[in-house]
Structure formats: C-alpha cells, structure tokens
C-alpha cells in the first residue's frame, strides 16, 4: 500500500524558514518523480515543485522559484521541501504527491497524495 | 497556461447527470487530469489524458475533450460524489490547476 506522510509544518514568522518532509512507503521511491502542491485556506490547489526519480530534473512554480528548494533522499525514501523567505501568502496545507507512470509522457499526473501539513506564516 | 472551470459551484440531486467544463488558455492536446477533493482530505485522481479513467474510479465518471475545451461528466450523481473537482494541465511546466467546481446537494 502506497503511503505518503508529510511533516514539518507549523507557525513561522514572515521571512523565516521551514523544511517539510514526506516519508514514503509501499513503492520503489527512486523510480518515481515526486511533487509538492499546496492549498491556501479555503482556496484551490496550487502546484509548487516537482523532482525526477534520480533528482536530476527539477521544476518550480514561479511563485516559489528562488525561495523554495525541492530535494530527495532515495536511501531514506523521503522527499523534502526547504522553504526560505516565507511570506504570508505561503500559508497553506502542503501536500506531497507521487507522480504516476504514463508511457510516452514526461509530465504526468499525481496518483497518490499525502494528507498534508499546515504551514502558517504570521507574526 | 490558465485553466478556467465552470461553473464554480452547482447544486444537484442524487441521480442527476452533472457536467463540469475546463477551458485552457492555449492548446494542451489531451494533457489534462481531473481530481476530486472532499473537505479536509487530499485530492484523488479520477481521470488523466483527458479521458482515461484511473484504476478503481467508478465508471459513472467520464472525461472528454482535447485542445482547449474539456468536460468531466458524472452520469448519475451519488451521495459520495459531493465534493470539489479540479482540472490540471500536464502539457508544460509550470503545472496549473483550475479554480475548482464545488458540487453541492440540492
């Protein structure tokens, strides 16, 4: 059974930093790209970043580029999101998601999601 | 690529046929997915490649369209289908989601 468990959320002041983790099980982690998405309270979904299985290919949303860093440790089956220079508008539930296999496509949807971790940026 | 979903909300009864549309700001071929999200829960993948049903998803859900105009149809609405639905384009980065359509009980 695929399981994704986010951790590391909490309250942080504007300008501060936070690192989110997503521990996984139930699949061969290194074989799959992984992604982060977020959802501000009462709002819709926003994609944040994606990283390939080997970590060599990474893309970011414009809203977080230069402030957030996605990474992974395949020996620990864990995905990370380092968030720096946090702003009030970064307040959201952050989800990690497994990217599905879809032959012939390099950009693929998310077939499993974690339950999310809440990040609140406020003074 | 901007995705516009309509309507933003709708009220329907059990057994109704429901249609949600998603319009892309440019041609995305068939690179579109649909997700369902219930309150306090993570999204769930329903359909990808515009019309391919994800494993385990009931056949009352279907998707169609290509280019810029897409549709998610629920053929006979069930109590467990009351939720918010999002489209997502997978044509190019940055990935984007539509604004969502909330399906409520009439």
Characterize the structure shown:
The complex is a heterodimer of chains A (123) and B (106). Chain A is an all-beta fold and 123 residues long. Chain A is built from no helices and eleven strands. In chain A, strands 2, 4, 5, 6, 9, 10 and 11 form a seven-stranded mixed beta sheet that branches. Chain A has a four-stranded antiparallel beta sheet with strand order 1-3-8-7, with no helix packed on it. In chain A, strand 5 and strand 6 (58-60) form a beta hairpin. Chain B has 106 residues and is mainly beta. In chain B, a hairpin with a 6-residue loop joins strand 9 (84-89) and strand 10. The A-B interface holds A 44-47, 50, 59-62, 95, 100, 102, 105, 107-111, 113-116 and B 31, 33, 35, 37, 41-45, 48-49, 54, 86, 88, 90-100.
Provide a brief overview of the structure.
The complex is a heterodimer of chains A (123) and B (106). Chain A contains no helices and eleven strands.
Number of helices of chain A: 0
Low-confidence stretches of chain B: none
Helical content class of chain A: under 10%
Radius of gyration of chain A: 14 Å
Q: What order do the helices and strands come in, and which of them pair?
A:
The complex is a heterodimer of chains A (123) and B (106).
Chain A: E1 3-7, E2 10-12, E3 18-25, E4 34-39, E5 45-51, E6 58-60, E7 68-73, E8 78-83, E9 92-99, E10 110-113, E11 117-121
Parallel strand pairs in A: 2-11
Antiparallel strand pairs in A: 1-3, 3-8, 4-5, 4-9, 5-6, 7-8, 9-10, 9-11
Chain B: E1 3-6, E2 9-12, E3 18-24, E4 32-37, E5 44-48, E6 52-53, E7 61-66, E8 69-74, E9 84-89, E10 96-97, E11 101-105
Parallel strand pairs in B: 2-11
Antiparallel strand pairs in B: 1-3, 3-8, 4-5, 4-9, 5-6, 7-8, 9-10, 9-11
Task: Throw out a few tags for this protein.
heterodimer; A: about 120 residues; mainly beta; seven-stranded mixed β-sheet; four-stranded antiparallel β-sheet; B: about 110 residues; 11 strands; about 0% helix; about 50% strand; globular
């Amino acid at each position: 059974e695929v399981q994704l468990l986010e951790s590391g959320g909490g309250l942080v002041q504007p300008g501060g930093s936070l690192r989110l983790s997503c521990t996984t099980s139930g699949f061969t982690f290194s074989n799959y790209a992984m992604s982060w998405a977020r959802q501000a309270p009462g709002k819709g979904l926003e994609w944040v970043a994606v990283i390939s299985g080997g970590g060599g290919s990474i893309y970011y949303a414009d809203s977080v580029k230069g402030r957030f860093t996605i990474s992974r440790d395949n020996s620990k089956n864990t995905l990370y999101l380092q968030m720096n220079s946090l702003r009030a508008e970064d307040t959201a539930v952050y989800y990690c998601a497994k990217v599905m296999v879809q032959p012939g496509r390099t950009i693929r949807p998310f077939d499993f999601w974690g339950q999310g971790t809440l990040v609140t940026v406020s003074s | 690529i901007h995705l516009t979903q309509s309507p933003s909300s709708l009220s329907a009864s059990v057994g109704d046929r429901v249609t949600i549309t998603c319009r892309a700001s440019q041609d995305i071929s068939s690179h579109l997915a649909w997700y369902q999200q219930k309150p306090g829960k993570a999204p769930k993948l329903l359909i990808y490649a515009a019309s391919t049903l994800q494993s385990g998803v009931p056949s009352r859900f279907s998707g169609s369209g290509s280019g810029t105009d897409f549709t998610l149809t629920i053929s006979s609405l069930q109590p467990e289908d009351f939720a918010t639905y999002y489209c997502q384009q997978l044509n190019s980065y940055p990935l984007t989601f539509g604004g969502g359509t909330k399906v409520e009980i009439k």
